[in-house]
Amino acid sequence: MTLSTARRTGGTDTTNAGDRRGEVVVTDIGLDYNGVPALADTDLHVHAGEFFTLLGPSGSGKTTLLRIIAGLLDPARGTLHIDGTDVTRTPTQKRDIGFVFQNYALFPHLTVAENIEYGLKVRKMPGAKRAARVKEMVDLVALGGFGDRYPAQLSGGQQQRVALGRALAQNPRVLLLDEPLGALDRGLREELGAEVRRIQQESNTTAVYVTHDQEEAFILSDRMGVMRDGRICQLGTPEQLYREPKDLFVAKFLGKTNLFPGRITRVDGAASHVRVGEHDLVARTNPAIVGDDVVCSVRPEQLILGGAGAGSPVPAGFDRIADAIVTEVRFLGQRRSIHLDADGIACSIDLDPAAPAPVVGEHVSLLVRPGEIALVVAAPAASAEPDASA
Amino acid sequence: MTATDAPTPTTPLAINADPVIRRRIGTIAARVALLAPVVAIYVVFFVWPIVSVLLRSLSPEGKFDAAAPVIDFANYQQIFVDDFLLRIEWRTVLLAVNSTLLTVLLAFPTAYFISRLSKRTAGILLLLILVPFWVSIVVRLFAVTSILSPNGIVNQLSLALGLGETSLLYTQAGTLVGTVMYLLPYMVLVLYAGMTSVDDNLVLAARTLGASSVRTFFTVYLPMVRGSIVSGALLVFILGLSFFLVPAILGGPQEQTISVYIQQQIDVYQWGIASAMGILLLIATIICYIAVVKVAGSFQPGGVGPAQAKGVSTSLPFRWSPWMAVSATVTVITIGFLVVPVLFVFPLAVGETGTVVFPPRGFTLRWFGEVFTSQVWLGPIWQSIIVALGTAVLSVGMALILARVTSRMTSTLGKAVIGGLAFAPIVTPAILLAIGIFDVELKLGLTGTTIGLIFAHTIIAAPLSYALIASAMSSADRGIEAAAWTLGASRARAFWTIVVRGIMPSVVGAFAIAFVTSWDEVVLALFIQTGPTKTLPVTIYKYLESGIVPTVPAVASLLVLVVVVIVVVRGVTNRATDRRGAARNQAQPPARQEKP
């Protein structure tokens, strides 16, 4: 199955990961809502101690998968193992997980300390030990002095910390987070995102994190999976997904990109020769591609400008991919964004703001390093994921 | 999904069944087990009584024989032919129509005036309407009887002014006065809710378009509140149509209405005509309620939402005008009409004479002492407390189960059906419910028992508890229960420690409203209590029928005092919680609902 992530297993051996726990293995899990599959039969292997993110637009099935792992939804098919034990039919209560809800779901009638204490009380932890653990958690989530407040007396960011502390208090094997930062404003989101990551590392748990915000995913994840229409399109490290998108959807969903239709002329091992317009280029081979029609995905920061016309010089190490006319120049602080029209294809590139800026109407050519072009299938075909029928 | 190796399964279907489906069946079974007692109580003490009366109404002798069932519409025919019965029906309809008209005429200016006042003043005036509303109708009836009686204040005033004898007791006018007094608070509260929800900007917009105040009132304001007027009037009409207490006490023997006639017939075990009339009342009520739903779009139990002073907005400030002056005058009349009878019980209670007279002669607190020392009153007080507590516990239990099941339901139709069925008992005319439950409890040997009365009161109290708890549960965050599960709490533990504790104010409110409903209930208690010890309101009612003793005003004043104390305490605690900020979500004050 091409979805499984054999690529990254080189670094750590996951089978005997010491005191790390919380390995989640999802096998052929599927669920239908009124006959429509909300989750196609999905496989996923989250390693112990890993911070794994499920990224996708709303309705892509990422929350469904998370809730199935939590036991809040029953899958129609498939099995789920946590640390090697089959928990497919185990009720939520017995799965030893922590769940952070999108709206936090704090108990409004209990104080911060009582919220955090709840799971410990359920587990009948003795009073003194319980109090110590609550204090420890309150400190961990940086809420010292707020223990006696009610949730309604806290700000959104503080509520989020309580939710995190409550989920972690009983030291769960797996921490499941359902868009926990979605309701916060931008600055707070970044700050708390880093904190979620720190707390996860310190508490030594596996985290499965659901979000539609790619920046969050990039900041937090060891690995991530992009979901769409109830299936996982691609798995990998954030960098892998950004640099080597497997299909058009992943390429467009993660960051901005410029898409140039082309045609494969020759495949030469890891290098594919592509013809884009009248230019011949070399790109990395994408094994998922079956036909000849492809799209070249080039990120705005990977392009530079060169002189117009076939005769103008091309810097060493660059290839010309298209000719274009500058339509808009914007100064954006850290970068200068240039919008261009490349024979009907709208493109944008990011330049160093210190570099000389082109003027609107100028004829230029777009240059790219050969290795940075990612090839994806022309149409966002559903056949991007070959079925594991063997 | 391995499709290649799929030989036909040889295992039996049951073992092979999808575990998910098996678990679904499990939850359905648990749901049924929870619901069974609720459904049983509902069927035995609501469905069976109605069906029983219906069957009796179809037999000429008023006796249904399961061995030889007959369907005969003779009783119904009689209702529409017999002169005597027609006169009773005409009188009933006339009373309902007149009291509705009078109520609307008084309530509209009152509600309008209050809706134009600042929040603080409006709150005080609403309180003056709510306190009488919360005082038991029997207590208020007692006061009205004293006021209207030949040696009462009205007649004395009329004699002193040289207007001759004015005795309203046992006349149509007296009945009308009593009925309007009962219906007024409902109408004012419905109208006030409707008026405060009108967007002031609409009125301002009409003015900017050049419309005069009068034109604005008729073309913009009135259409906006027409829904509240119509649904409030229909509601009041329904209550007036099957009203029993006021006609029974103030109407006297010549002024029977349908309800009073039914009661008299059942007293002598003549079921045929009485049953048919009860069913007729039910049909009329259902028609009116359908009209209410059509007009208002939805049905609120009792038609009275939480009465909270809103206060007029600064964009449309209060301004005196001739219309406003008229409204203010009507408001004074309305409030005086409601408050005076309630206050009137106090002077009556302190007179030294052995007969109750106004103004009181001398001053003594002896009668209060007597209330707390004689078994005549301690028995009923104790009985009332036990029945009310039992009713409250049972109602809250049923409401929790029902609310829990409906909050988990996904089908809107299912929710609507359960909601409709749950509210059916409080829509049913009290007199019909009373004779039906009486009939059934006679067969079960429950009449005269405390538990029999608790079941009967639960039937009318549980819907109100359910309304409070269901709305709190549906507005509470559903996620918190799942959150408790993920923390390891069992389903039962999560339900009690999170769901129920989280809506505790509403649960307490549901308990209180069930308690009060039972505490004040007269009609069901009148029929079902065949034993010597009756509940407090029924005891007072019996004295109203037979003649007042001096301890009655003392008891009445104590009951008024209890209401005043509760209202004051509520006001203080509410203000305290307001000051503490909206840190904890607080329950709305429960609407008062009474079944006379």
Automatic annotation (TrEMBL), chain A:
GO terms for molecular function: ATP binding. Keywords: ATP-binding, Nucleotide-binding, Transport. SUPFAM superfamilies: MOP-like, P-loop containing nucleoside triphosphate hydrolases. Residues 24-254 form the ABC transporter domain. SMART domains: AAA. Pfam families: ABC_tran, TOBE_2. InterPro entries: AAA+_ATPase, ABC_SmlMolc_Importer, ABC_transporter-like_ATP-bd, ABC_transporter-like_CS, Mo/tungstate-bd_C_term_dom, P-loop_NTPase, Transp-assoc_OB_typ2. PROSITE patterns: ABC_TRANSPORTER_1, ABC_TRANSPORTER_2. PANTHER family: SPERMIDINE/PUTRESCINE IMPORT ATP-BINDING PROTEIN POTA, SPERMIDINE_PUTRESCINE IMPORT ATP-BINDING PROTEIN POTA. This is ABC transporter ATP-binding protein. It comes from Agromyces salentinus.
From TrEMBL, chain B:
Residues 89-292, 381-570 form the ABC transmembrane type-1 domain. InterPro entries: MetI-like, MetI-like_sf. It is found in: Cell membrane. Keywords: Cell membrane, Membrane, Transmembrane, Transmembrane helix, Transport. It holds the Pfam family BPD_transp_1. It is a multi-pass membrane protein. The chain crosses the membrane at residues 32-55, 93-114, 126-148, 168-192, 229-250, 271-292, 323-351, 385-405, 417-438, 450-473, 494-516, 548-569. Belongs to the binding-protein-dependent transport system permease family. CysTW subfamily. This is ABC transporter permease subunit. It comes from Agromyces salentinus.
